[in-house]
């Protein structure tokens, strides 16, 4: 059975955020606090094994005193590129990923994924009962070569990749808000008006 000691938490903050006028989503303010800071506070209460995937504002992210890993591939190749880059850098057997733009995130998500995973599955993906939430992924370091080959082939779709591997869904209630994310300026304004 896996424990949190087997896991490094990787926060994906390396996207281009085209639907938010190319702002760096990890650094946008929700209730006067950068999104990345809110995530880090939640995660750091439970583990110090944290890394951040970022491709811009690297010095700002480094100020949080966790390793910052940039994509191995140039030009914002999507979340799998960030996952691959972080997976190569960890010294634990597993990486669990989450996006930087989920303001309602809870450690419960990570704990449930750890508790319901097993060493028979190389990839575990959160599912809210309606659809998969693939950026919330627990992945074995043994998948580095598989990811490398997939990306080298020019493929980027995260759903296709995990379905080609020994994966398992971890189910959450479909009314959960843990997976809500902020993709647009309108959504950001909505959160800040609460």
The helix fraction, in percent, is 25-40%
At the first level of CATH, the class is: Alpha Beta
CATH architecture: Alpha-Beta Complex
Strand and helix order = EEEHEHEHEHEEHHEH
Distance between the termini: 40 Å
Work out the helix count: 7
- CATH fourth-tier homologous superfamily: Spore Coat Polysaccharide Biosynthesis Protein SpsA, Chain A
Radius of gyration equals: 16 Å
Low-confidence parts: none
Shape: globular
Structural class category: alpha/beta
CATH topology, which one? Answer: Spore Coat Polysaccharide Biosynthesis Protein SpsA, Chain A
Number of strands: 9
Annotate the secondary structure layout:
Elements: E1 7-13, E2 29-30, E3 33-34, H1 35-44, E4 50-54, H2 58-62, E5 68-69, H3 79-89, E6 94-99, H4 107-116, E7 123-127, E8 132-140, H5 144-152, H6 158-163, E9 167-171, H7 185-192
Parallel strand pairs: 1-4, 1-6, 4-5, 7-9
Antiparallel strand pairs: 2-3, 6-8, 7-8
């Amino acid at each position: 059975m896996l424990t949190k000691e087997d896991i490094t938490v990787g926060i994906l903050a390396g996207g281009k955020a085209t639907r938010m006028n190319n702002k760096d989503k990890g650094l946008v303010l929700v209730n006067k606090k950068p999104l990345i800071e809110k995530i880090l506070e939640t995660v750091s209460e439970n583990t110090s094994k944290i890394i951040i995937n970022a491709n811009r504002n690297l010095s700002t992210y480094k100020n949080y005193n966790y390793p910052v890993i940039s994509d191995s591939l140039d030009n914002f190749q999507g979340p799998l590129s960030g996952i691959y880059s972080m997976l190569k850098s960890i010294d634990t057997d597993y990486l669990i990923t989450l996006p930087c733009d989920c303001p309602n995130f809870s450690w419960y998500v990570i704990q449930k994924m750890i508790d319901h995973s097993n060493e028979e599955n190389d990839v575990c993906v959160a599912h809210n009962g309606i659809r998969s939430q693939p950026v919330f992924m627990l992945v074995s370091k043994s998948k580095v070569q598989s990811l490398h080959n997939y990306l080298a082939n020019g493929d980027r779709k995260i759903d296709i990749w995990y379905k080609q591997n020994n994966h398992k869904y971890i189910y959450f209630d479909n009314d959960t808000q843990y997976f809500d994310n902020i993709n647009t300026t309108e959504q950001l304004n909505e959160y800040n008006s609460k």
